[in-house]
Write a structure and sequence with these properties.
By secondary structure, the protein is an alpha/beta fold. The protein contains eleven helices and eight strands.
Length: about 300
C-alpha cells in the first residue's frame, strides 16, 4: 500500500498511538489507508488534511471539517476580459462560466494605473458597464457582476474615486508593484486598502509569482486583524502562477474569522478551469463551504457586499 501524508502528519499519528497505548501502525501492513486509521480507532483522514496541524486529535474528537469541494462554488469573483489584458470577450467569459454551472461571474478588469495591462479609467469602466447590462439582459438568470481589480498605488490609495467604487457590485483590490518594499511600507499600503469601506476582496494578497518572485514581507498579524475588523474577504487565487494565499496563510485567516474567496483570476475562458488548484489550497486550510464567499447564492453575495459598505 502506498500511503500519502506529510512527515508532520506521520509524527502526529505516532504521538497519538503512544498516548493511547497503541502500537505504531506503520510497523504493520494494511490493505488500504483506511486500515492505518482504523488500527488507531480513528476515522479516515483525507490526504489534504494530513499536514500535522492537529488533524489527528480533531479526528479523534469527531471535529474534522467537511471541507469545501469544487461543486460548492457558485461563481468566480475575479476574472478578466479583452477590456483589459484578457484573451476572451465578456460574452466568451460568460459562456464559459455558464458551461461550468455558475450562477454568476465577476468581470474584474484592471484599472488604469496598471498600464501594462491596458487598465480601465472611469470612462472606459462605465462603457464596460453598458456592455454588461446588455449581456445580463440576454443571459438572465445568470449574472455578470460589475467589478474591477483596482490597483493599490504606492501610497496605499486606490486607483478610482470612492464615488465610482460605490457603484460597483464588488471591489477587488490588489498590489502589483512595490512588493519588495520594507515590511512597514508594504503592510501600510495594504492596510489602507483593507480599511477602505468600498473594498470587498483583497486579491492574491502576497503578490508572489510561483518560481518567479517571493511574496511581500507583510506583518501578517496586522493584515489578518484588519481584515477581520473590517470584514474584508481575502482571496485564494487559484492561478497556477500564484496560488496565493498559501494554505498556511488561509488557515490563519480562518482562525481570525475572515471570509475567503476562491477565484481563478482567469485571463481567458479556459482559465476558469484552474479553480481546482485553489480548492486544494482551501482544503489544506480546512475551509468549509461557510467560509467561502462564492459558495453563496447571488442574493446573499450581494447582500454581504451591501452590508459591508
Amino acid at each position: 500500500m502506498l500511503w500519502t501524508g506529510s512527515r508532520a502528519h506521520l509524527d502526529e499519528l505516532r504521538a497519538f498511538a503512544a498516548r493511547h497505548g497503541t502500537d505504531d501502525p506503520f510497523r504493520a501492513t494494511f490493505p488500504d489507508e483506511a486500515g492505518v486509521y482504523a488500527a488507531l480507532g480513528l476515522p479516515p483522514i483525507r490526504p489534504e488534511l494530513r499536514e500535522g496541524r492537529g488533524e489527528v486529535e480533531a479526528a479523534w474528537a469527531g471535529r474534522l471539517p467537511r471541507v469545501i469541494e469544487i461543486g460548492d462554488i457558485r461563481g468566480d469573483l475575479h476574472a478578466h476580459s479583452t477590456w483589459s489584458d484578457g484573451a476572451s470577450t465578456i460574452a466568451e467569459m460568460a459562456a464559459a462560466a455558464i458551461a461550468r454551472g455558475y450562477a454568476y461571474l465577476s468581470v474584474s478588469d484592471h484599472t488604469h494605473s496598471l498600464g501594462v495591462a491596458n487598465g480601465l479609467d472611469e470612462a472606459r469602466l462605465r462603457a464596460q458597464w453598458r456592455e454588461i447590462d446588455r449581456r445580463n439582459a440576454e443571459l438572465a438568470p445568470f449574472r455578470l457582476l460589475k467589478s474591477a481589480e483596482v490597483e493599490i498605488r504606492r501610497d496605499g490609495a486606490l486607483d478610482l474615486p470612492d464615488a465610482v467604487l460605490a457603484e460597483l457590485d464588488l471591489v477587488v483590490a490588489s498590489l502589483h508593484s512595490g512588493l519588495r518594499g520594507g515590511r512597514e511600507e508594504v503592510t501600510g499600503r495594504l492596510l489602507r486598502a483593507i480599511r477602505n469601506p468600498h473594498v470587498d476582496i483583497i486579491a492574491h494578497a502576497s503578490g508572489r509569482i510561483v518560481g518567479g518572485r517571493s511574496g511581500a514581507d507583510y506583518d501578517w498579524d496586522a493584515i489578518f486583524a484588519a481584515a477581520a475588523e473590517t470584514r474584508t474577504a481575502l482571496e485564494i487565487n487559484a492561478s497556477p502562477e500564484r496560488l496565493d494565499l498559501r494554505d498556511e496563510h488561509a488557515r490563519r485567516a480562518l482562525d481570525h474569522g475572515i471570509t475567503l474567496t476562491i477565484d481563478g483570476d482567469a485571463h481567458g475562458a479556459d482559465g476558469l478551469a484552474a479553480l481546482h488548484y485553489g480548492i486544494a489550497t482551501a482544503q489544506r486550510a480546512w475551509a468549509t463551504t461557510a467560509d467561502v464567499l462564492n459558495t453563496r447564492p447571488l442574493d446573499e453575495l450581494l447582500a454581504w457586499a451591501r452590508i459591508r459598505r
